[in-house]
Design brief:
The chain has helices at residues 27-34, 37-40, 50-57, 60-64, 116-129, 146-154, 184-188, 200-222, 224-227, 230-236, 253-263, and strands at 12-13, 18-21, 66-71, 74-84, 100-107, 136-142, 158-169, 173-183, 237-244, 250-252, 272-282, 285-294, 297-309, 312-323. With 331 residues, the protein is an alpha+beta fold.
């Protein structure tokens, strides 16, 4: 059975992290932090033994909804997305199928305080409202799980429900619960919908989100599947697209996608990327810089991306400069 996450070209990179689909090989690395008492305290299911965790982890439905958060080759957390149907009256129920999702996350506390959770969940939200096409997301937690609800608020999610002694904790008894949610149109606006969007912190969240979305679009454009598909690549190119290539050639919208597809080789090595970083030049306008390596040639690259719809970006300028031994001498 397919899962909405199947529609994304994995892995997806953020500024510092790599998000990828979970596999059975991630069992031990996730158990390493999910077994910690301070982590298990707020989990919906806290397995006491490795065997019990293995049985839970390898459930097909659970594994399909799980993403791994990787920092330089080390697993530091996992993310969950469950697709859901929105509530609807019977006559329009078909239109509400698969339109919303539930988010979840668990992180190794050894990597707390560095913004990794915010960066990872922000990227997942961008994917949900971008290529996955969801219209609404929600997440729930115990009121005592302050790090979790603080994270939701940093991401611009609004508290929709404060339930009083509605949630039974395994050791603390009946506790209050919080439910947060976010709509696609809210994600496109300055986050918060409240005063939070007007201060410096709120503006920074909005800027970081736009940069993360542009980075996700850049990685999609570099993926072998996209580069081999003319129509898919053209959707990422603005009509006024212009490129100065690392080869020295100059290209426009009409020729770029066809030339890239013609050069694609089945089973070819992927383009590797180092030091991807972004800067918000204006709302809806992001500049990205990074170093790439492909077929033994390294290039420094710059891309300019323009937001054309909520969660949808198009590149309108790209430039590559050969670096390393192949680079020309002189200024």
């Amino acid at each position: 059975m397919s899962h909405p996450l199947d529609a994304v070209e994995w892995p997806v990179r953020t500024g510092r992290l790599l998000l990828r689909r979970a596999t059975g090989d991630d069992l031990d690395s996730t158990w390493a932090f999910r077994r910690l008492p301070q982590v298990q305290d707020w989990l919906g299911a806290a397995t006491e033994t490795y065997g019990a965790y293995r049985e839970l982890y390898l459930r097909e439905d659970r594994l399909a909804s799980l993403l791994i958060v990787d920092l330089d080759g080390r697993v530091i957390g996992d993310l969950m997305l469950k697709a859901e149907n929105g509530w609807a009256q019977e006559e329009v129920a078909d239109q509400a199928k698969g339109t919303q999702g539930e988010l979840g996350w668990t992180f190794d506390p050894a990597f707390g305080g560095k913004g990794y959770a915010t960066e990872a969940v922000r990227a997942l939200i961008g994917l949900c409202f971008g290529p996955l096409g969801l219209r609404r997301l929600h997440a729930d937690c115990f009121s005592g799980n302050e790090p979790s609800w603080r994270l939701m608020e940093r991401l611009g999610m609004r508290r929709e429900l404060h339930s009083v002694k509605e949630s039974l904790h395994r050791t603390k008894g009946w506790l209050d619960g919080f439910s947060y949610a976010l709509l696609a149109e809210e994600w496109d606006a300055v986050p918060g919908g409240q005063a939070a969007g007007q201060n410096a912190a709120g503006r920074q969240v909005a800027a970081d989100r736009q940069v993360a979305e542009a980075i996700a679009a850049e990685y999609e454009s570099l993926s072998p599947a996209c580069r081999a598909d003319v129509a898919r690549l053209q959707r990422l190119l603005a009509p006024d697209f212009h490129e100065f290539g690392a080869s020295g050639g100059e290209f426009g919208y009409e020729s770029t996608a066809e030339l890239v597809a013609e050069s694609a080789v089945p089973g070819d090595e992927p383009i590797t990327v180092e030091n991807m970083r972004g800067q918000l030049l204006a709302s809806g306008l992001v500049m990205l810089k990074y170093t790439s390596e492909y077929r033994g040639r390294r290039s420094n690259r710059t891309s300019l991306w323009r937001r054309v719809a909520p969660g949808r970006w198009q590149i309108f300028h790209h430039q590559g400069t050969i670096t390393g031994p192949d680079a020309p001498a002189g200024p």
